Amino acid sequence: MKLNKVLPKFKGLYFFLKRMKYKWMGWKFDQPADRIIQTASTTFFDRHPDLFQAVSELAISNPNLSILSFGSSTGEECQSLRKYFPNAKIVGAEINADSRKKAIANNADERIQFIDSVPSKINENGPFDVVFALSVLCKNPEAEYAEDLSSIYPFATYEKMVNELHGYLKVGGWLVIRSANYRFKDTAINNNYQLCSPAGMREPIEFPKFDASGKKLKGFLESEEIFQKIK
Ligand SMILES: C[S@@+](CC[C@H](N)C(=O)[O-])C[C@H]1O[C@@H](n2cnc3c(N)ncnc32)[C@H](O)[C@@H]1O
C-alpha cells in the first residue's frame, strides 16, 4: 500500500514521531531541536543550475565573492558553485556532522570549507555576498501531508532562521531561497529586500507552501527566489 494513502490515517502519530526525530537529531548534533529543519540530506551535483547562473550574472562585477551555502549536506552544492564562481570563497554550513564529514573528506579545494552550522562559527567566516538556502528551510516529506504545518514547523521558526541568514549577508548581497515551506514575502525582514529573480529562470513548480498561520496554500507556484538586501 502506498505511503500517502496510509499516512492520512496516522498523521498524528507520524508528526509525533517526526517531532521526536528532530529532538533526537538536536541532541545528537548538539543543537536546539528547532534548528533542525530539513532532515533529509538529498543533494547532487549542479542541482540548481538556473539559480547559480542567475546569481553569477547578477554578481558579475564582483569576481571575489564570499558565498555561504546554508545546508550544504555532503558538499556537492559547494563543489558545483565553483564552476559558476571560479574565484569565490565558498563556505558550506551543515548541521549534520555525518554529512559534514563526507563533504570535508571529498574536498580538495582550499577556497571551499565546511563548518558546523553554529551562528558564531558562520559569523567568523562572514559577512557574505551571497547566501544560498536551497531545499533546507522546509520539512519534507512531512509538509506534503500537512494541511497545517504549525505543529511541526511554525512560521516563527522559519522567520527566526531567515533573520539569522539576513545577519550573515552584506548590504547589496543576495539571499537565495528555494523549496522553503513559507513565503519570504510574509516575513517582516522582507521590507529590507528587493525581489530580483530574473523572469523565466525556470517554470515555477508546485511546492508545499503555507501562510504565516501555518495553513496550506493551494496550488502555490514557487517563483520568487532571489532577493537583494537593500538595507
Ligand atoms: C535536502 S539537503 C539540501 C542540500 C543542498 N542545499 C541542495 O539543495 O542540494 C538539506 C540539508 O540541510 C541540512 N540542515 C537542516 N537544518 C540545518 C541548519 N539549521 N543549518 C544547516 N544545515 C541544516 C540538513 O542536514 C541537510 O543536509
Description:
This protein is α/β, with parallel strands linked by helices. The chain has one domain: Vaccinia Virus protein VP39 (Rossmann fold, 3-Layer(aba) Sandwich), CATH 3.40.50. The chain is 32% helix and 21% strand. The strands form 3 sheets. Strands 3-2-1-4-5-11-6 form a 7-stranded mixed beta sheet, with helices on both faces. A two-stranded antiparallel sheet has the order 7-10. A hairpin with a 5-residue loop joins strand 8 (209-210) and strand 9 (216-217). The structure holds S-adenosylmethionine (SAM). Residues 35-38, 40-43, 47, 70-71, 73, 77, 93-96, 99, 117, 134-136 line the site of S-adenosylmethionine (SAM).
Outline the secondary-structure elements.
Elements: H1 3-6, H2 11-28, H3 49-58, E1 66-70, H4 76-84, E2 89-94, H5 97-105, E3 112-116, H6 119-125, E4 128-134, H7 142-145, H8 155-168, E5 169-178, E6 193-195, E7 205-206, E8 209-210, E9 216-217, E10 221-222, E11 226-229
Bound molecules: S-adenosylmethionine (SAM).
CATH class: Alpha Beta
| CATH architectural group | 3-Layer(aba) Sandwich
CATH topology: Rossmann fold
For CATH, the homologous superfamily is named as Vaccinia Virus protein VP39
* Strand-pairing-aware structural class: alpha/beta
* Largest sheet, strands/sense/barrel: 7 strands, mixed
Mean pLDDT: 93
Q: Residue ranges: pLDDT <50 for 5 or more in a row?
A: none
Radius of gyration: 17 Å
Could you spell the SSE succession in H and E letters? Answer: HHHEHEHEHEHHEEEEEEE
Net shape: globular
Widest sheet, order of strands: 3-2-1-4-5-11-6
